Description:
Blueprint: H1 2-15, H2 31-56, E1 58-66, E2 73-82, E3 89-95, E4 100-101, E5 106-111, H3 117-135, H4 138-145, E6 168-178, E7 182-188, E8 190-194, E9 197-201, E10 214-221, E11 235-237, E12 244-258, E13 263-277, E14 289-296, E15 299-307, H5 310-346, H6 353-371
Helix pairs in contact: 2-5
Amino acid sequence: xxxxxxxxxxxxxxxxxxxxxxxxxxxxxxxxxxxxxxxxxxxxxxxxxxxxxxxxxxxxxxxxxxxxxxxxxxxxxxxxxxxxxxxxxxxxxxxxxxxxxxxxxxxxxxxxxxxxxxxxxxxxxxxxxxxxxxxxxxxxxxxxxxxxxxxxxxxxxxxxxxxxxxxxxxxxxxxxxxxxxxxxxxxxxxxxxxxxxxxxxxxxxxxxxxxxxxxxxxxxxxxxxxxxxxxxxxxxxxxxxxxxxxxxxxxxxxxxxxxxxxxxxxxxxxxxxxxxxxxxxxxxxxxxxxxxxxxxxxxxxxxxxxxxxxxxxxxxxxxxxxxxxxxxxxxxxxxxxxxxxxxxxxxxxxxxxxxxxxxxxxxxxxxxxxxxxxxxxxxxxxx
Length: 383
């Protein structure tokens, strides 16, 4: 009984077979079919390899939400060189609430304003990358993916000690400010705390020494990440006027970065530049110096690195193989049908009259052989 039930189950499974096997004696091969098969297998292999490279690649996904964190502090990283002596310039930050942020985190270092050939080459390379980033924003994703591989964007040190006079001041360091709009001032004189506001002691500085030519080696907000190039990195402004004012209007966007190599809370920013000469007689009022006015955005951007899941890769791979197999089969059948129609219409190839007669003769000969063949088993002789 068990054997009978097994046989019934096996026969039932055989009836459900959706892939019936065809005997090889009924299969006819051709040169055109073999050629199409080779082309199909080659296309399958090529597309499968390309799909594997796509599977290995990652992309950056951008999500936007409202920034609800207003109580934390915002870090500003500064590295600016001004073409004036350190005792003649001062830097401080005044926010929208008229709160003067102390600049204790900033250091004043006497340096040479002119760059060495190696430093000038570094700056030109940085400016070239900046121009490419403005033209093709997809490069920023490459920078995000290769954070740890990229070298820090700080200006390389001088090769050897120079005997030139230290005619500039490098202001570098970081400060923490409130997450409200503010203004970073770099102007003549040291800043002083005043109950009524904000002031710089500039009375003892000669007007002829004013020179606010400057170079921004690095300016960023939030956590400082190596390999990330910010919009103002490498910016250099040269002026020959003592009354020049430089203004940078910055919009800071909080950004959470999550990649397979690093996770960090940083900030992106966009900037608009403006410069003008202070001339009170012409109605251009103001104070000579460098002013960085920043404001924080209420939106937060989450940048995460995405990868294609394995199941999606397998589905796409099956689609490639099955699609090419089915498409080439249909195209081969369609081309063969059209070829047969054309040959039949114009009596070409196998459809020529002589070829048709030869084929009929061969078929007739085969039929005769089948009718007069020797039997495999001889009949029993009569007794």
